[in-house]
Amino acid sequence: xxxxxxxxxxxxxxxxxYLAKFLLEKDYRVVGTYRRTASSNLxxxxxxxxxxxxxLIPMDLLEMTxxxxxxxxxxxxxxxxLGAQSFVGVSFEQAVYTSxxxxxxxxxxxxxxxxxxxxxxxxxxxTSEMFGKVREEPQNEDTPFxxxxxxxxxxxxxxxMTVNYREAxxxxxxxxxxxxxxxxLRGREFVTRKITASLAKIAHGxxxxxxxxNLEAKRDWGYAADxxxxxxxxxxxxxxxxxxxxxxxxHSVREFVDKAAECAGFRLAWEGEAVSARGxxxxxxxxxxxxxxxxxxxxxxxxxxxxASKARRVLGWQPEVTFEQLVxxxxxxxxxxxxxxxxxxxxx
Length: 348
Ligand code: NAP
Ligand code: F7E
Description:
By secondary structure, the protein is of the alpha/beta class. It has helices at residues 14-25, 43-47, 64-74, 88-91, 95-116, 150-169, 191-203, 224-236, 253-263, 309-315, 323-339; strands at residues 5-9, 29-34, 55-58, 78-81, 121-127, 173-178, 181-182, 210-212, 218-219, 222-223, 242-245, 251-252, 268-271, 278-281, 287-291. It has two domains: 5-181 and 221-245, NAD(P)-binding Rossmann-like Domain (Rossmann fold); 187-219 and 251-302 and 322-344, UDP-galactose 4-epimerase, domain 1, CATH 3.90.25. Helix content is 39%, strand content 17%. The chain has a seven-stranded parallel beta sheet with strand order 3-2-1-4-5-6-11, with helices on both faces. A four-stranded mixed beta sheet has the order 8-15-14-13. α9 (253-263) packs across α11 (323-339). The termini are far apart. The structure holds NADP nicotinamide-adenine-dinucleotide phosphate (NAP) and ligand F7E. Ligand F7E binds next to α4 and α7.
């Protein structure tokens, strides 16, 4: 069989690093697109040990001519659209930009794939954020959407546009409705990595306190390596379709903090309620976690829990890493980085 070519947009991001490694191990030619920036941000590919095996090509999802030419040049057999303004918090202040990248950018890509010959298989990174103010629990592929941020609204547009290109133009296009998935390569602004990196710095005397927003928000957190395997499985199925990937378990931010603190060698006692809540290190009596209202969102997604039974039944996908293992993996990686002074530059 001829070697397959995968094009991954957003190659500098968390998922792309795991997916690139996964596909290279399956002997794909992997081409990754990145935005030109003044400073290099290829550290994730470097950490995964794949930087020299991925072909890099500059592409911005906001520039349609660029998108079309990249698809024509690379002629991919599979396209994984992972590029996005992916931080929900920022989307409230950058609603137009987020819509252009996360919604219209996807339309450019779908058009480019259709214009080439429509043969490339297409993966769209849909999200559990589309369920937002949830209509039922757990959420599955039939649960109605109720997006609560410009990020999620834009993703709903992209989701239905992908479904439409599948139905109207016969593209082999799939949407993965992925619940939160994390790893040591997670961006530092997301709550899980913010917690593990901060606690590691506190444990090494490099930071005093971790400030968080809504401690009661609940998420269905899985491990990124499990989820990229699911993306690939979707594109190997004879037909394009939409699938939820999730663990089926939900935990609060506070539970994540407790478990991470334990892995970092702290035992926390909680005092106070809501914005006055404080996490105190029992050994030293110091407050090491507190609430800062600046980190609350104008509209919150309070609780998410996914039902991935369709992916299990049709694709044979299931997650392998548990919540406890995930926290341990992330905490261990950040303790190691802190010990080597690698987190000193991080600001939250
Ligand atoms: P990530 O680490 O934030 O990576 C996003 C990537 O998109 C980065 O490479 C970023 O480039 C790139 N990008 C941003 N704006 C772009 C533009 N205008 N043109 C081209 N590329 C652009 O995100 P992730 O966690 O890997 O997630 C991958 C995808 O899955 C995203 O679409 C996200 O919305 C979606 N998703 C994520 C989760 C999750 O829990 N991780 C769950 C559901 C869905 P820079 O490095 O230059 O910023
Ligand atoms: O927030 C609460 C916050 O920013 C999780 C993206 O990958 O997953 C991610 O979106 C929860 C929210 O992720 C802080 O209010 C409390 O309820 O880690 P997050 P997210 O918004 O769920 C989905 C599936 C995606 O698609 C997105 O691309 O934690 N929270 N205190 C906080 N969140 C942050 N970031 N920082 C805090 O201090």
